[in-house]
């Protein structure tokens, strides 16, 4: 077990007073330096002096993705471009990327958050970390790279793809930690199996997977396929990428670096704050950012907060798994559901593989929903029409029981659904 630092086990009062001080500093800094916030605060006729306790944050306006789009490229920046030493971006939905910027201090803070995350996960200087996130504008690879180096581990920046070469390097260099999306972890696991390599023959012990959801059922596939403990980390480009939160080996929530990012959960419809434990939309206020401070940024991610002390001894607030995004929620015949719920149902069957694609189409006025799911090679090799019909009916029955409506299931042969080296696209809403 790695050492727990004092800032990871502050009392709630100590953390709250630190957060309040930094919140007031951030509000005053943003108002002074970012035209967007100056105007927003004027419209809400508020100043940072009005904030004397953390719960008053609920009276502040939100920042939305559309604000970043409208103020592209530098409108949300609090510093002159000459102070910026790094830019990362995610692909926006409207054509223009969503940028995030770092001053030297922001980058150092990012590194501290990533290092803390990886210590929480149990990485030490003896580890060999293979970074198989893509090294592009995407924050994933660079953030993980910074954190692993900061822990004193040896970093192998392979980037994503060239899976055979990844495996060769794992074997030759005795990689102990694989960093990549859950989707790519599945690709590596599949390649190991195909090549007849026993994961136990590798030095791999830990997988750190983020940037997209990983259900418990998918975690199990990855852990078995790679012979690792698979832990999730979370973050988003807008607030600086990964480094926001990380699971510890007790797998009971993601520890939030709440001295850097103040979290709230709101009801996405009423926009009112929800009490601890209730599920809603995660909102973050940056507490230490120089280049691009964000106040009450609506992430669209759905989860809940837990304030009890974790089994690992840390008091940092934790969020639960991201069970979906407000913009990912699907409505079929009036019933709301998240793709992650369907994933858990599909992967709970011992005959299925963790590869599926959900299609939503219109048949006249009615929603027609179907899902293609691969079966494991062991099942496919032995299957006949009867056994595959029986499995299909069992899966359809389970979906109807849990989600309350019918989804047509098509069983697919192994390897027939496209794989991804980054984030997977599994939902095709063609309505
Ligand atoms: O995905 C940052 C990141 C890189 C996080 C590497 C972790 C590891 P974006 O591309 O901006 O940034 O996507 C952010 O991805 O709002 C979530 O919806 C989703 N997401 C990220 N991590 C997780 C996770 C990076 N562990 C968006 N579980 C977020 C579920 C996740 N969803």
Write the layout of secondary structure elements.
Layout: H1 12-33, H2 35-43, H3 65-70, E1 84-90, E2 98-103, H4 104-121, E3 128-131, H5 139-150, E4 154-156, H6 163-173, E5 177-180, H7 182-194, E6 206-210, H8 216-226, E7 229-236, E8 241-247, E9 254-256, E10 261-266, E11 280-286, E12 297-303, E13 305-306, E14 318-319, E15 324-325, E16 330-332, E17 335-337, H9 339-347, E18 352-363, E19 366-375, H10 377-382, H11 385-403, E20 408-412, E21 427-429
Parallel strand pairs: 3-4, 3-5, 5-6, 6-7, 18-21, 19-20
Antiparallel strand pairs: 1-2, 7-8, 8-9, 9-14, 10-11, 11-12, 12-15, 13-14, 16-17, 18-19
Helix pairs in contact: 1-2, 4-5, 6-7, 7-8, 9-11
The protein binds 5'-O-[hydroxy(phenylacetyl)phosphoryl]adenosine.
5'-O-[hydroxy(phenylacetyl)phosphoryl]adenosine (DLL) binds at residues 90, 133, 139-140, 210-213, 232-237, 241-242, 299, 301, 322, 325.
Description of the structure:
With 431 residues, the protein is of the alpha/beta class. It folds into two domains: 325 residues, Rossmann fold (3-Layer(aba) Sandwich), CATH 3.40.50.12780; 100 residues, GMP Synthetase, Chain A, domain 3, CATH 3.30.300. 32% of the residues lie in helices and 25% in strands. The strands form five sheets. Strands 4-3-5-6-7-8-9-14-13 form a nine-stranded mixed beta sheet, sandwiched between helices. Strands 10-11-12-15 form a four-stranded antiparallel beta sheet. α4 crosses α5, α7 runs parallel beside α8 and α9 packs across α11. The longest helix has 22 residues. The radius of gyration is 22 Å and the shape is globular. The chain starts with 11 loop residues before the first helix and ends with a strand. The chain binds 5'-O-[hydroxy(phenylacetyl)phosphoryl]adenosine (DLL). The site of 5'-O-[hydroxy(phenylacetyl)phosphoryl]adenosine (DLL) has 20 residues, from α5, β7, β8 and β12.
């Amino acid at each position: 077990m790695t050492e727990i630092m004092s800032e990871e086990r502050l009392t709630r009062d100590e953390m709250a007073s630190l957060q309040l001080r930094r919140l007031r500093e951030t509000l005053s800094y943003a108002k002074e330096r970012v035209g967007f916030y100056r105007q927003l605060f004027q419209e809400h006729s508020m100043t940072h002096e009005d904030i004397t306790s953390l719960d008053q944050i609920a009276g502040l306006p939100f920042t939305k993705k559309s604000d970043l789009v409208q103020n592209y490229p530098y409108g949300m920046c609090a510093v002159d471009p000459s102070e910026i030493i790094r830019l990362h971006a995610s692909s926006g939905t409207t054509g223009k990327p969503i940028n995030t910027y770092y001053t030297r201090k922001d980058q150092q803070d990012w590194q501290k958050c990533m290092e803390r995350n990886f210590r929480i996960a149990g990485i030490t200087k003896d580890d060999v970390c293979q970074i198989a996130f893509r090294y592009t504008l995407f924050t994933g690879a660079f953030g993980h790279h910074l954190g692993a180096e900061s822990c004193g581990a040896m970093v192998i920046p392979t980037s994503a793809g060239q899976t055979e070469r990844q495996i060769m390097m794992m074997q030759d260099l005795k990689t102990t930690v694989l960093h990549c999306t859950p989707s790519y972890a599945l690709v590596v696991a599949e390649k190991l199996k195909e090549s007849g390599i026993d994961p136990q023959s590798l030095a791999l012990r830990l997988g750190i997977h983020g940037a997209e959801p990983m259900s418990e059922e998918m975690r199990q596939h990855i852990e078995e396929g790679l012979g690792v403990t698979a832990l999730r980390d979370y973050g988003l480009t807008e607030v600086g990428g990964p480094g926001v939160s990380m699971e510890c080996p007790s797998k009971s929530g993601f520890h939030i670096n709440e001295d850097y990012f103040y979290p709230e959960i709101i009801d996405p419809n009423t926009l009112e704050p929800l009490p601890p434990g209730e599920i809603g939309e995660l909102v973050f206020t940056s507490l230490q950012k120089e280049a691009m401070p964000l106040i009450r940024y609506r992430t669209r991610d759905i989860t809940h907060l837990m304030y009890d002390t974790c089994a690992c001894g840390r008091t940092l607030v934790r969020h639960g798994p991201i069970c979906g995004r407000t913009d990912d929620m699907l409505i079929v015949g009036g019933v709301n559901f998240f793709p992650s719920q369907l994933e858990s149902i599909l992967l709970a069957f011992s005959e299925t593989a963790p590869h599926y694609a959900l299609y939503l189409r219109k048949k006249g006025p009615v929603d027609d929903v179907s899902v293609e799911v691969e079966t494991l090679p062991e099942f496919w090799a032995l299957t006949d029409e009867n056994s595959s019909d029986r499995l299909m009916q069992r899966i359809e029955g389970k979906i109807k029981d849990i989600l309350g409506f019918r989804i047509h299931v098509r069983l697919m042969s192994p390897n027939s659904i496209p794989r991804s080296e980054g984030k997977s696209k599994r939902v095709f809403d063609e309505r």
